[in-house]
Recover the amino acids of this structure.
């Protein structure tokens, strides 16, 4: 975890910093993702879309869509995604053909109950308010709508956790510095401090109006997938 002496931005300062960071790293974002996850992020995204279990033609919001990996996977499965991201640079670098718009995913510019599902890849720790995001998910999904939230995690096993710490906190920033922006990829491991403990995270989703909440671990606990159904 990030040390108590390391200060992370909060509130609007966080939103401004995150937007500027993703604008800056957009051109090489996909490359760094593939390298630092050994290409496994592709399989995690496939699993995220598959776990929605929605029929072809379902309308799906891809929140913090980035360069469009989840949008593209949703399209391959016959879904109808719409990508939304705060960072214009990421939207401009998107390789998905789905419609996309710039917007704050904690205040979505869409009507109530408009979507059958929602996706969010590696962005929970980047929003200013998780509760605002969960409230927006509940508002914009129809009853019975499905969500798939893919995010980083840290292994529970102490030995695995130590190995993960060495890689994620020490090596990933070096990879990011060589291929893109070192400061941005120093933020990546530090930003896990924004995430609440797993049980609390799931409880807050339940309080927002979701049920059938399930948690799945990837790569020995270094990444996680949370799925749930709108009550």
């Amino acid at each position: 975890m990030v040390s108590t002496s390391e200060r992370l931005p909060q509130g609007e300062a966080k939103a401004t910093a995150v937007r500027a960071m993703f604008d800056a790293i957009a051109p090489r974002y996909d490359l760094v993702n593939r390298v630092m996850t050994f290409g496994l992020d592709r399989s995690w995204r496939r699993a995220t879309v598959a776990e929605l279990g929605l029929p072809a033609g379902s309308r799906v919001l891809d929140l913090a869509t980035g360069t469009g990996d989840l949008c593209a996977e949703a399209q391959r499965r016959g879904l109808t995604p719409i990508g939304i991201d705060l960072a214009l640079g990421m939207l401009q670098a998107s390789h998905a053909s789905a419609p996309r718009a710039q917007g704050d995913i904690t205040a979505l510019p869409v009507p109530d109950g408009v979507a059958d599902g929602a996706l969010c890849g590696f962005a929970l720790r980047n929003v200013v308010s998780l509760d605002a995001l969960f409230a927006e998910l509940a508002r914009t999904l129809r009853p019975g709508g499905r969500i798939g939230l893919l995010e980083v995690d840290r292994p529970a096993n102490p030995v695995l956790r130590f190995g993960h710490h060495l890689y994620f906190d020490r090596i990933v920033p070096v990879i990011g510095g060589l291929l893109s922006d070192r400061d941005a990829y120093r933020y990546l491991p530090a930003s896990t401090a924004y995430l609440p403990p797993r049980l609390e995270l799931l409880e807050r989703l339940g309080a927002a109006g979701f049920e059938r909440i399930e948690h799945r671990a990837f790569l020995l606990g270094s990444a996680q997938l949370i799925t749930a159904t709108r009550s």
